[in-house]
Amino acid sequence: MSKRFIHSINYMRGLCMLGVIGIHVGSVAIANPTPNLWLVAVLEILSRFSVPAFFFLSAFGMFCSQPLNQPFSYKDYLRRRLRTVFVPYIAWSLFYMLYVSVLSHNFNLFQPLAFVKTLWYGLAMYHIYFLVILLWFYLLMPLWRGLLQQMEKAPLASFTLLFAANVVFNFYSSYIWTAPTDSPFLHDAFVYRLNYVVFHYLFIFMFGAFIAEHFQRAVDWISRHGVFINVLQLAATAGMLAAYYGVMDYLHYDVLSAVFTVHQLSPVGMVYTVTTIVFFLYWLECHSVPPVMHRLLSMLGNYSYPIYLVHPVFLSACTGLAAHFHLYLRAVHILAIYLIVAGLAAAYSAVIMNLSLPRWLSVCLKGK
């Protein structure tokens, strides 16, 4: 496909980043002794598409820049991707390890075994594990290229089979398998499996690769099936909400247990992720976007990476201030925290992205 700039994909980066912030702010909402169930539903349930959607977007970008019909240099590709992801990962992990250690007055994270474990599994902060699993996807790029070539021989059957296999794997990983207790190493490897086992997100990643290879054909199909896509999105959204309220009403789960049950790797969550991605493509690629919305979504998309890296700092500051002033966080306060965190992270990113920095610092802060 042409390497033209695709605004809809960039818009989706911004929207997914807002979803990620929503999930993390949702953790604050859940901590309320009497949480607002609708607010939690929006922040912690309906925003769940955003994490796997980033794997879709990552695969899309990878296969746009390295399509199957062009020569592929694994060495050159890996050098670029490591600069974009590995260097910022190390830099921000060290920053968050120091940040947490200073706030807690405990520097045990820098003990050798804890230090290695933290970096290996992406434990420096709750959001940064994403870069670890993304690095595994990057390292295995030749495997994904070969797999996509095979899947393109019978795409409908291949993707249906992969989706079904992924649903089964994620179901067992989420609800059935239990951590071994006879070995601390195996126990940690199981507990932190979402941080490196790429099969959890393999379908959505390969789906992004396939759409990148056949973008115009996919858009043509999507544009002709708008009613079906909208109805499917409504059904998937209703399914997510029904599962969320259902486990509380019928299984008597508390809100936290409901959120841990109805997530992006649950069967309904996987369906919801796919329908939401296609839904966004339909409305953002097949329709004109108002100028004001274009500027806002473009800004969020352009700054999504720095926003992702820094937003826990502002969320920590907001919750810390609320705790200092003994503020009871009602729904209006949670929404205010969301807006403040998103706004400050975007402002930081705007400054950082427009600064002329030394190359090494630019790579650490921006990934480029």
Topology:
Layout: H1 7-30, H2 37-45, H3 50-65, H4 74-104, H5 112-121, H6 129-139, H7 141-151, H8 155-176, H9 184-191, H10 202-213, H11 215-224, H12 226-249, H13 255-261, H14 267-285, H15 291-302, H16 304-324, H17 331-353, H18 359-366
Domain Acyltransferase: 6-344
Transmembrane segments: 12-31, 37-64, 85-104, 124-144, 156-177, 197-215, 227-245, 265-284, 305-329, 335-357
Pfam family, one: Acyl_transf_3
Structure description:
- With 368 residues, this protein is an all-alpha fold.
- It has one domain.
- Helix content is 76%, strand content 0%.
- The chain has 18 helices and no strands.
- The chain has helices at residues 7-30, 37-45, 50-65, 74-104, 112-121, 129-139, 141-151, 155-176, 184-191, 202-213, 215-224, 226-249, 255-261, 267-285, 291-302, 304-324, 331-353, 359-366.
- The longest helix has 31 residues, at 74-104.
- The radius of gyration is 21 Å and the shape is globular.
**Proportion of strand residues:** under 5%
Written as H for each helix and E for each strand, in order along the chain, the element string is HHHHHHHHHHHHHHHHHH
Integer-rounded radius of gyration: 21 Å
Count of discrete alpha- or pi-helical segments spanning 4 or more residues: 18
| Average pLDDT reading | 95
Give the beta-strand count. Answer: 0
Q: Spans with pLDDT under 50 lasting ≥5 residues?
A: none
- Which structural class do the helices and strands define? mainly alpha
Shape: globular
Helicity level? over 70%
Pfam families: Acyl_transf_3
Organism: Megasphaera stantonii
Subcellular location: Cell membrane
Protein name: Acyltransferase
